From TrEMBL:
CDD domains: Glyco_tranf_GTA_type (cd00761). It comes from Harenicola maris. This is Glycosyltransferase family 2 protein.
């Protein structure tokens, strides 16, 4: 069984029909967690494989982990502000399976955290001088969803806007519930603790697209560099086996 999990709220409603129309034919079920809604969306009622879920509380982005998907073969985590191609699911599973045996979290937007070094370059010297434990989120090598990546690469963290893992590897909602607005960090911590390798998957440029909304978690939360989020990042950053190297398939 192939499942896609998506959490949304009213300001993002305009792009939901597009996302659902693209993904519904590619999966067995879409779990659509509707935060802050009073009831199911009429414009999506014709999709038999779309389960509209009204949680008891506002789960925000942690809602992607609200449904029980432990019996699924693959679970995809998707967002309401991306544009997915018609071959998104099939190509992603193909690339995921090419990683070989083992436990993986694969995705198309990822990060490797970095530590700046002393430099004669004024810009780099400033980064080194202002580096601190709390500001670790400001120092990373990004693998962006809209850029080309030729080979799968081991990373510290994979974003849940275009990612997949096996159902048996998905963390329970109880583990993720308190990570609202930083679910990517908490998921990376779960993966590190449970021997699941985080991998940036290969793709061509602009295979994935984007719809821009005024309000984003990155600008409204991530850039605040909150200490408790930084503490979680430090629990796994720089520690992955083969970090930054291409993934060699295991037979």
């Amino acid at each position: 069984m192939i499942i896609a999990n998506l959490a949304s709220y009213p300001p993002r409603r305009s792009n939901l029909p597009r996302v659902v129309a693209t993904l519904a034919p590619q999966v067995d079920r879409i779990n659509l967690v509707l935060n802050e809604y009073d009831g199911p969306l009429e414009e999506l009622s014709s999709y038999a494989n779309v389960k509209q879920i009204m949680p008891d509380e506002d789960t925000k982005d942690a809602g992607k982990f609200y449904p029980d998907t432990s019996d699924a073969d693959y679970v995809f985590f998707v967002d309401d502000d991306l544009i997915y191609p018609a071959d998104f699911i099939a190509k992603s599973i193909e690339r995921f399976e090419a990683l070989g045996k083992g436990h993986f979290l694969g995705g198309y937007h990822a990060s490797i955290y970095t530590k700046p070094a002393p430099s004669l370059s004024p810009k780099r010297l400033l980064k080194w001088l202002t580096y601190s434990r709390e500001k670790i989120a400001d120092h990373r090598r990004p693998f962006r969803f809209y850029e080309t990546l030729e080979q799968p690469v081991v990373v510290d963290q994979v974003a849940t806007n275009a990612a997949l893992m096996r159902g048996a590897d998905v963390p329970p909602y109880a583990y993720m519930a308190s990570s609202q607005k930083f679910v990517d960090v908490r998921l990376a911590k779960w993966c590190f603790e449970n021997g699941i390798r985080s991998v940036a998957l290969p793709k061509q440029a602009h295979w994935l697209g984007e719809v821009r909304f005024e309000e984003t978690i990155f600008h409204g939360f991530t850039r605040k560099n909150l200490p408790h989020v930084a503490d979680e990042i430090w629990s796994y950053a720089f520690k992955a086996e083969g970090l930054g190297a291409p993934v060699e398939p295991r037979s």
